[in-house]
């Protein structure tokens, strides 16, 4: 549904987006990750047809964004960075405008507005001017705008920015609910979001695509993947025992009475660790296996570039 | 066409959603009244007509129209709504025309609300209503030209104050082009063709012609081409913003 081919954007001397390519099909939720200024928003602006690429292009359902912009814009629902809107319009008036521009008339238009307002829980503020709304509400109005025509493709630039934890949860639930019948791209700083909603993640830094993988594959790259943390009363002895194990690469003190053992090949070692401690007649208060940490991976990957 | 109309409606509603429209109209009417009566000597001119009223319009628009046009695109660029507009299925020309048409219509409403002047002169005497109608049309066309220039300049910046100041300056040049000072200055060194050109692009000359009651096709064409030219430039500038 989305095919991005060698997309590049140059601003003066700097290459903001450098030869990015990927494909996305229905049912996928792609997380765009990267430090600030990495080129995430610029990439999204090009796919949605706002900025014209310096080279390369994006195809939406086979339509080239460069020469079929209107078709592309019809197929996409787009939430721009910062969710810009006409501040003096009312929420209802704004959504009505969007439905009119999207070509809906009469009852159909009213229904579309109602549905979008309902999904984003805006019914109580429909009469209010947008400028009087809190950041969280504004973001939801932006989402309602993007989803109004039930597009096949959603491109959301930081959809949960400024939302409180409950609202974030709500939006993620919404995205997940729609995910099976759409192709969705979201950019985010929040790594837990990737684990929560994305089926795939792309990491961009300095305009270059560094990684394109599933969240699970990314987690595997974490040095914490399958590490075991253990709470033991006799910490020195435990450390000695664990360091003897072949499958353990390193043992680290991570707090009072807490040790962490890192596996050699990122293979599970919890059984082995527990076994070894028990054989040495050491008491174990608690034992946990780590699933890997995305922020580790994120830092390692983006720093290398 | 439908999209243009949708944009037109949104813009129009935008004017009236804030006090902006009301303040603009009130100031427009007060200024028109004060200037006509005190500067234009409406009462003392000794005959029933609106020449003194319309004669001031080129000058009076010089500040009011840029105040209207300055936000057209600069604000959209600054707040990011330009990105929203340009990622909806809206063609650039639909946005340019829709926004301009709404501003022009709004200026038309303000202008139409000066009708008490027209009633007054008809009550006091027997003015030539044909001349008055032609003057209204001419004044509206002139407002449209100022607006198109202003819309183009507003598109080139994110700063409304800059848009205002530059528009006033550019419109000022268009107005004074035909004045004796400029003509004398130019005729010192330029050839006849150039002199004719300078005269031709003077808003003042065209409006003066129309407000005598002659809705000269050449003048109408002049205002229409100014509007067409600057709206085209407006679209080009916005397109360039997209490609940076």
Features:
heterodimer, A: 305 residues, alpha/beta, Rossmann fold, Alpha-Beta Plaits, 2 domains, six-stranded mixed sheet, four-stranded antiparallel sheet, 11 helices, 27% strand, elongated, B: 244 residues, mainly alpha, 14 helices, 0% strand
Write the layout of secondary structure elements.
The complex is a heterodimer of chains A (305) and B (244).
Chain A: E1 2-11, E2 14-24, E3 29-33, H1 40-47, E4 55-60, E5 63-64, H2 69-75, E6 76-79, H3 91-101, H4 106-119, H5 135-147, E7 153-157, H6 165-179, E8 183-187, H7 191-197, E9 200-205, E10 208-213, H8 215-220, E11 228-231, H9 235-244, E12 248-255, E13 258-263, H10 270-279, E14 286-289, H11 294-304
Parallel strand pairs in A: 3-8, 3-9, 6-7, 7-8
Antiparallel strand pairs in A: 1-2, 1-4, 4-5, 9-10, 11-13, 11-14, 12-13
Chain B: H1 2-17, H2 20-39, H3 51-54, H4 57-69, H5 71-79, H6 81-86, H7 92-112, H8 115-124, H9 129-155, H10 160-176, H11 180-187, H12 192-200, H13 203-211, H14 217-243
Helix pairs in contact in B: 1-7, 2-4, 2-7, 4-9, 4-10, 5-9, 7-9, 7-14, 9-10, 9-13, 9-14, 13-14
């Amino acid at each position: 549904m989305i095919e991005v081919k060698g997309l590049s954007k140059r601003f003066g001397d700097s290459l903001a987006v450098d030869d990015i390519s990927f494909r996305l099909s229905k049912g996928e939720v792609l997380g765009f990750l990267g430090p600030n200024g990495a080129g995430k928003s610029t990439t999204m602006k090009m796919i949605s047809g706002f900025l014209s690429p310096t080279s390369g292009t994006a195809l939406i359902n086979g339509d080239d964004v460069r020469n079929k912009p209107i078709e592309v814009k019809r197929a996409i629902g787009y939430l721009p960075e910062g969710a810009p809107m006409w501040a003096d319009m009312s929420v209802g008036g704004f959504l009505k405008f969007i439905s009119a521009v999207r070509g809906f008339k009469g009852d159909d238009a009213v229904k579309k507005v109602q549905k979008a307002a309902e999904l984003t829980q805006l019914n109580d503020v429909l009469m209010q001017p947008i400028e009087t709304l809190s950041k969280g509400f504004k973001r939801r109005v932006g989402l309602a705008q993007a989803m109004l025509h039930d597009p096949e493709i959603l491109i959301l630039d930081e959809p949960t920015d400024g939302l409180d934890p409950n609202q974030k949860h709500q939006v993620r639930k919404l995205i997940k609910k729609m995910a099976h019948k759409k192709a969705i791209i979201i950019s985010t700083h929040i790594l837990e979001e990737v684990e929560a909603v994305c089926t795939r993640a792309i990491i961009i830094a300095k305009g270059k695509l560094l990684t394109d993988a599933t969240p699970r594959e990314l987690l595997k790259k974490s040095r914490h993947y399958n590490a075991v943390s253990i709470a033991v009363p006799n910490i020195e002895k435990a450390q000695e025992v664990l360091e003897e194990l072949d499958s353990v690469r390193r043992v680290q003190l991570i707090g009072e009475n807490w040790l962490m053992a890192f596996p050699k090949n990122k293979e599970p070692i919890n059984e082995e660790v527990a076994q070894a401690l028990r054989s040495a007649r050491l008491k174990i208060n608690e034992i946990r296996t780590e699933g890997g940490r995305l922020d580790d991976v994120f830092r390692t990957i983006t720093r290398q570039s | 066409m439908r999209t243009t109309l949708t944009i037109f409606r949104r813009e129009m509603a935008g004017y009236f959603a804030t006090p902006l429209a009301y303040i603009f109209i009130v100031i427009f009417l007060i200024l028109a009244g004060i200037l006509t009566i005190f500067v234009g000597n409406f009462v003392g001119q000794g005959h029933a007509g609106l020449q003194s009223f319309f004669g001031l319009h080129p000058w009076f628009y010089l500040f009011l129209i840029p105040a209207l046009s300055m936000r057209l695109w600069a604000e959209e660029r600054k707040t990011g709504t330009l990105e929203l507009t340009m990622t909806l299925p809206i063609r650039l020309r639909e946005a340019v025309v829709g926004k301009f048409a709404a501003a022009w219509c709004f200026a038309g409403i303000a202008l139409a609300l000066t009708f008490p002047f027209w009633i007054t002169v008809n009550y006091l005497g027997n003015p030539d209503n044909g001349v008055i109608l032609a003057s209204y049309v001419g004044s509206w066309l002139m407002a449209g030209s100022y607006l198109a220039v202003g819309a183009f300049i507003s598109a080139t910046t994110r700063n409304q104050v800059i848009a205002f100041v530059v528009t006033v300056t550019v419109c000022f040049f268009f107005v004074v082009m035909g004045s004796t000072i400029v003509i004398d200055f130019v005729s010192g060194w330029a050839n006849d063709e150039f002199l004719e050109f300078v005269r031709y692009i003077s808003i003042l000359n065209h409006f003066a012609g129309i407000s005598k009651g002659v809705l000269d096709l050449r003048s109408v064409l002049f205002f229409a081409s100014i509007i067409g030219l600057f709206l085209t430039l407006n679209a080009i500038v916005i397109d360039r913003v997209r490609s940076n």
